[in-house]
Amino acid sequence: MMQGMTRYLDLDTWPRRAAFDYFRRFDKPYFNVCTRIDVAALKAAVAGSGGGISLACAYLALQLANAAEPFRLRLEAGRVRVYEAVQGSTTVLRDDESIAFAYLDPAGGWRDFMASAQASIAAARDPRSSFDPRLDDPALIHLTSLPWVHFTSFSHARNWGREDSVPKLAFGRLAADGERLWMPLSVEVHHGLMDGLHVGRYIEAFEAAAAAPADWLADA
After folding, report:
1. pTM of the model as a whole
2. Tens digit of pLDDT for each residue in 68-82?
3. Residue 176's beta-bridge partner residues?
4. Which of these, 79, 75, 57, 93, lies nearest to 163 by C-alpha position?
5. Which residues contact 205 (CB under 8 A, 6 or more apart)?
6. How many domains, the chain?
7. Does residue 140 fall inside a structural domain?
8. 19, 42, 124, 153: most buried, per Cβ within 10 A?
9. pLDDT band per the 50, 70, 90 thresholds, residue 2
């Protein structure tokens, strides 16, 4: 995905400058919000499409992240870079129970995303493929899934020696409740770059998109 011209926030005029300076010096500057999303309508909308609920959730997550500037901000040597677009990096479980990484580009519509994501995931599942975490690519949203657990809390692995400001999302096991189908959702972000308000807006947008997915999947 082309990132276009490099752009940085003007920290002198950024209303969050004080919070940025405060939180970015923390030993653990990240905060995590866990909630649950009703994905019944989304699952029904993609039934028979060949994509499935997991890919649909990844697609919505990336589309919404690209629509929200705070999720495209990254720390870069004391500055805050604004990426025009971000992709997804998702863990993939191989047949031998090892993991690999696949990369998802949400630039096209649902049908294009589904095809390219399935190809990327299939390639990552090949035991001959390389273990490729792309640590030097911050223009990502890190995605993972824990389909065995309907979790209520979640914590991601961290390397304290790196300036990691990539948002990280996790999806959990679905649980039916009458007409509802609850999916755990974890959103973990760098507090220097955003606050609870921004995560709350992102989750609200995810809830709305999952409840009325027709416009998002119009090309399915």
Report:
1. 0.94
2. 999 999 999 999 999
3. 181
4. 75
5. 64, 67, 68
6. 1
7. yes
8. 42
9. very low
